[in-house]
Each structure stands twice: as C-alpha cells, then as structure tokens.
Amino acid sequence: MDKKTLYEDFRKIATASVADAVEQITGERGYMNHQIKPRINDQKIVGPAVTVKEVPAEESVPPTHALEAIDESPEGSIIVIGLEGSDPDVAVWGGLMTAGAVVNKLSGAILDAGVRDVTEIKRDFSFQVFSRSVSPGTTVGRYKTEAMNVPIKCGDITVNPGDLIVADADGVVVVSKKSIKEILSLSEEIEKREAEQTKYIRETKSLIKGIEKYDRI
Prior knowledge:
CATH topology of the largest domain: Glucose Oxidase, domain 1
CATH class of the largest domain: Alpha Beta
Helix content: 25-40%
Structural class: alpha/beta
CATH superfamily of the largest domain: Ribonuclease E inhibitor RraA/RraA-like
Strand content: 25-35%
Order of helices and strands: HHEEHEEHEHEEEEEEHH
Oligomer: single chain
Shape: elongated
C-alpha cells in the first residue's frame, strides 16, 4: 500500500478510533493534551511529522530550523513544533510561516505553544493549525530553534520524525511510524464494529443492550 492510500484510509477514520487502536497495540497513550486544539477551521489533517525543537534563548534570532522545515519538507508533511516549557504566551507560528507552508503544499502544523495572525490565516489560507493557545507574542528574544527532525515532546506525547499525525476536532493522535499499518487495520475494525453497534442500538432502542453485545462504549 502506497503512502498516499494509507493516509487517505486514516482520513476516513475518527481520531477516537485511532487513539483506541494505538493504546491497544502499544499499551501507551498516543493522543496529545486536550489543550492542543484546532485554531483555524474544522479541517482534518493526516500526514507524516516533521519535527522542530525550540528552547529558551536570550538572543534575538529567527526560527531557522522551522523556516528550513517549511521550505524543505516533502509535500503533505505536518510541521510539529515542541517548545521546552510549553509556553502558551508565545506564538511559534504565524501568517508568513503559513504562506510558506501553503506554497510548499504542507498539510498543517501542530504546536506546543501559541499561534498568531489567526484572522489573516483564516481569511487568506485554507491551512489548519493545532496549538496550545492563541497569542500575539513573538518567540524572537525568548526562544530559538535548536534542531529539526529529532524526537520532541508536543502535547505531552513524544513525536518522532516520520510518525503519522491524525488530527481532527477531537484532538491529535500520534501513530508510531513502526506500527502504522497495524494500527490502521485495528482502527478500521474498531470503526466497523462501532457502526454495527450503532445500528444495533437503533434497532433495539437500547444503549445498554448495544454495550453488552459489543463490549464497547
């Protein structure tokens, strides 16, 4: 199965089902902190993670690694920025970065910090950003990028370069690149069983009977 087909299959599945599959297969939570929310629109995004690590700094320098990630990442990538301290009062993403991401056909951004220029992004671009907050504050003079495509923490979850991001209105799930096909298969089975369960509840007019038969809530 090629990557494009794989991503399209994940796009059809609710993040709740993917989160359940990740937990059942790995034994660990795979979904980010509830504070990482969609800030621009209701668009679902699916794609491989390109990670950027930011750390506190006193010097005023541009976010070099983030800029390089936007210009150099393959089409369909999702930029995931981890910030030491997870500061909600600074924005690690804005309108200019969105413009760069759009022309390079990236799928979205996930931020363990704030986003700014929200009105501009909503008005001028169909580009999805999940973030911890919305803030007008700049990182310049406060933080700097330290590395690109290294393991980072975002929303309390470790994200490795190439891990698959599945994100919608329910939140953000990280699927390890080592288990993508296995998690897709189980996610599809969970979705199928839930559809059957919903049908059974409607037929019997009983939530309790539906839960008893399918052992899922």
